[in-house]
Amino acid sequence: MTTPALLPLSGRRLPPLNLGASAFPHHRATLRLSEKFILLLILSAFITLCFGAFFFLPDSSKHKRFDLGLEDVLIPHVDTSKEGKNLGGFLIHGQGHDEHRHREEEERLRNKIRADHEKALEEAKEKLKKSRDEIQAEIQTEKNKVMQELKKKDSKPLPPVPLPNLIGINSGEPADPDIREKRNKVKEVKMMMMMMWSYPFLCLNSSFLLVTCNRNHSFLRVGNSQMGATIVDALDTLYIMGLHDEFREGQEWIDKNLDFSVNSEVSVFEVNIRFIGGLLAAYYLSGQEVFKIKAVQLAGKLLPAFNTPTGIPWAMVNLKSGVGRNWGWASAGSSILAEFGTLHMEFVHLSYLTGDPVYYNKVMHIRKLLQKMDRPNGLYPNYLNPRTGRWGQHHTSVGGLGDSFYEYLLKAWLMSDKMDTEARKMYDDAIEAIEKHLIRKSNGGLTFIGEWKNGHLERKMGHLTCFAGGMFALGADGSRDDKAGHYLQLGAEIAHTCHESYDRTTLKLGPEAFKFDGGVEAVAVRQNEKYYILRPEVIETYWYMWRFTHDPKYRQWGWEATQAIDKYCRVSGGFSGVKDVYSSSPTYDDVQQSFFLAETLKYLYLLFSNDDLLPLDNWVFNTEAHPLPVLHLANTTLSGNPAYR
Ligand code: DMJ
């Protein structure tokens, strides 16, 4: 160890040192115990100091967090490290300057926060002075602003496509004065209803009878009003009847009010056939872009329903969250054949109009899946589980739960200008199985279509099933083995049976379901099957039969139904369903279903019109009677699909 204290002050050499402890008593290599103790004390004091500094000095990261929130807004950014470097030897002076500026900034910030706080308090006090209505109005104005912005974003025009041949949108008056009068009567029924559309729209006024509102149908509550379904469903009927002012009124309402960004859980099927079908038909008839845009917006909201393990859509979807589910009552969580099988027409049109294959692919996927499945006795059961892809309960029906699936197989073929032969084959196969297993003649000679339930035929027919008469007639041309005559005859027999179900009641209106069992023929037995809710199926079949045969009895039967509806269902605010068609003093259900305007009155009007109004070679009616034009797909990419070869 060479400490200065141990070196001689002069240059003279000292004798060699004995560096042992005894030889040099003041320079020991070891420390005494007391010295060690003192050293230990100093060391522990030092460690304690470091600890204290670590925990108790201000946390610079907290300063940083505070700065992050405000610095960009309130504090002009000052880079102190740079300032220090530049000042070089004046670093100490620079640090003092920084601290001063920092204090100033803090003070300035404190003042600003205080001022903001006071301002917010003042504003809150002002708000509290306002009435509830004023506050609500302000909120509404803000909301409207946001809505307008969104609307602007959503309303981009869609790519133009060549419109199909739109023939027979307008036609002349029927030459026969009697028929003209009947047609005008149907139009008057409709027009009377439309007058009621004016301020403030019937449903919003509770002093009226609760008709027209579909207020008991939550699955149709799209947008901010319960009126949506009735207005959209009625539009094309108005157009066809030449009620253009009322049509424009509806268009205006849709433009301003029909909004799909809502927290509503809706039926995918019902929204498709009534809203999308209605909007598409209104677009094709009038050429007004708003209908096409709304249809596409809404369709986009239905797409999340297809996010299932199999691609078979859920029955219901929430328009906002996109969460889907099935009806609680459906067999083992199944989706329903008539629901997921009644999307094809509208979805093909959506792809056609937008150029986006997504819609087309969804419905073709469903078809492919169905084609691969085994069918008991060649029949399609009504229930299919969207998770497992397996059939639920073996129940087959051409009425409720099954009906429009068969209808859309036939109409897919017709709508494709008869190119979609795959759909026609599926239809022919299905109809053959139905004829074999479900169609029977009653003891009294009435042809009826029963229901297949777990290996047993239930000899009961629903009002809904009566549409099949029209379907058989429509599919007669182009049928397998040239059985056109046979299917036209089958259609006529069903029309006759369904007319009997009307004729055997007191009101001359058909019950919901009727039996052919135990001496009963075309009559409802159970009390809960005796109602008539303004359904169209029987009149629909009369119209198709009239178009294909021109047998005057169909117009006669249609006129009987018109009179009965006018006599027994007309109420002060519109038309209502009746609870018992066998009772001479009927009671009302207080609901005017939207399909009364979309279908029942439209089919009646067409029944008393010339055939050149919406000719069946050019138009195909969706299951809610919304006419969609035949697509000549040869020029589009859809025609590349094997289904169209
Ligand atoms: C309509 O909404 C459609 O026709 C659907 O296919 C089933 N039936 C109702 C009217 O009865």
UniProtKB/TrEMBL annotation:
It catalyses: N(4)-(alpha-D-Man-(1->2)-alpha-D-Man-(1->2)-alpha-D-Man-(1->3)-[alpha-D-Man-(1->3)-[alpha-D-Man-(1->2)-alpha-D-Man-(1->6)]-alpha-D-Man-(1->6)]-beta-D-Man-(1->4)-beta-D-GlcNAc-(1->4)-beta-D-GlcNAc)-L-asparaginyl-[protein] (N-glucan mannose isomer 8A1,2,3B1,3) + 3 H2O = N(4)-(alpha-D-Man-(1->3)-[alpha-D-Man-(1->3)-[alpha-D-Man-(1->6)]-alpha-D-Man-(1->6)]-beta-D-Man-(1->4)-beta-D-GlcNAc-(1->4)-beta-D-GlcNAc)-L-asparaginyl-[protein] (N-glucan mannose isomer 5A1,2) + 3 beta-D-mannose; N(4)-(alpha-D-Man-(1->2)-alpha-D-Man-(1->2)-alpha-D-Man-(1->3)-[alpha-D-Man-(1->2)-alpha-D-Man-(1->3)-[alpha-D-Man-(1->2)-alpha-D-Man-(1->6)]-alpha-D-Man-(1->6)]-beta-D-Man-(1->4)-beta-D-GlcNAc-(1->4)-beta-D-GlcNAc)-L-asparaginyl-[protein] (N-glucan mannose isomer 9A1,2,3B1,2,3) + 4 H2O = N(4)-(alpha-D-Man-(1->3)-[alpha-D-Man-(1->3)-[alpha-D-Man-(1->6)]-alpha-D-Man-(1->6)]-beta-D-Man-(1->4)-beta-D-GlcNAc-(1->4)-beta-D-GlcNAc)-L-asparaginyl-[protein] (N-glucan mannose isomer 5A1,2) + 4 beta-D-mannose. Pfam families: Glyco_hydro_47. It is a single-pass type II membrane protein. Residues 150-178 are annotated as: Disordered. Keywords: Calcium, Disulfide bond, Glycosidase, Hydrolase, Membrane, Metal-binding, Signal-anchor, Transmembrane, Transmembrane helix. Pathway: Protein modification; protein glycosylation. One of its GO terms (molecular function) is calcium ion binding. Its main location: membrane. The chain crosses the membrane at residues 37-57. It is found in: Endomembrane system. Its cofactor is Ca(2+). Ca(2+) binds at residue 623. Belongs to the glycosyl hydrolase 47 family. Involved in the maturation of Asn-linked oligosaccharides. Progressively trim alpha-1,2-linked mannose residues from Man(9)GlcNAc(2) to produce Man(5)GlcNAc(2). PANTHER family: MANNOSYL-OLIGOSACCHARIDE 1,2-ALPHA-MANNOSIDASE IB, MANNOSYL-OLIGOSACCHARIDE ALPHA-1,2-MANNOSIDASE-RELATED. This is alpha-1,2-Mannosidase.
